[in-house]
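dumping this here before i forget
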Amino acid sequence: MAQPQKRVYETWKGNNRFLFGGRLIFGPDAKSLLVSVSLILVPVLVFCVFVARHLRHQFSTYNAGYAIPAVAIIFMIYVLVLLFITSAQDPGIVPRASHPPEEEFAYGNPLNGGTPGRLQFPRVKELMVNGTLVKVKYCDTCMIYRPPRCSHCSICNNCVERFDHHCPWVGQCIGQRNYRYFFLFVSSSTLLCIYVFAMSALYIKFLMEEDYPTVWKALKHSPASLVLMIYCFIALWFVGGLTGFHSYLICTNQTTYENFRYRSDNRPNVYDQGCLNNFLGVFCSKTKPSKHKFRAYVQDEVRAPVVNFGRQMEEETAGGPRAKVEDDLEIGSDLLQISQRRNYGDVDIEMGSQDCNEMESIASAKLAIGSESQIPAIGSEVRVRHSSWDRRSGNWDMSLDVIGRSASDVIRRNASSSEAAPPFQTEAQ
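structure:
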């Protein structure tokens, strides 16, 4: 019975968590979102129950006092919605590649310090941005060259466009697609703190004008007002500071990551387009659609790149770097020695049910024959495996499994041809 085809969110390689069948995407620390919700919800409810309901009758004209708790509740819902939008959507995750970028491959040149016969590619590229060259790095995890202003989040394990930071209070990365909602959430939280603090202080003032002439007696009569004022004062240092800091970042078109990392480099900001244009770019530009369809069915992975060694070596001039590669891949006694050094049990699995002793005898016979006649070359196409990828050096070696299978194929073909040739059988005997 065929297994049901999986969806993208079910085979996701990042550390994200999905809810409602992939409709909502959160970071791995999404539980901290409950803490943030409680820090907003509880103080507002305390304010409505112990402070706002006593202020209803202080503004008797048109029953304006009822607007005080109503504004607090509406403001709270607005802040929670912004928090949810920031946390539950794709921040701008860049799709991963199934293999390294083959168009960037180059053969190592020993004159430049490279290893002959090894495929490698540059770890850094330069792109032109607003008339200035900007370096972009290669991501070993996602196997892509990161776009400008993109960075890999170690918590979510994703590359995010215009990566700002990973916010533990939101439980999500802050990137290109959710930055404006994050700023609106932080600034609205600041205004909510100011509103609750101001209304609590106003209630203390009304108490002092009535039966509690001193501040101490008024606060003793309404301890909830005192607690709310202290809480809002502390929270203002946090959310208010974030609001001011991100206002500065928007004015200069920077991200938190860029500000902390390149602050001491004194490098020019190639993305700054003026204060007004920077604000318009954040708040008035259209949000780019997500590059992922999390509920779509998983498609077959793209096949690994095929490196045509034979054709490229024929076109290479004698004495060039690829001639060295051709020498290294020369099919002769070296290849047979490699095949003999390998575990013949593995070769037997690849070839069928041949016995290990039969393999050794055939290899010995063909080694004697190969001294007078050249063994046919390996097929022109060799498939590169991901397991041979060296992340630290940025080089790509031929896998020993590939060489072993090719050697075994050569031995098998020549063994069958030798059986059909009586003179060779006589010499072998």
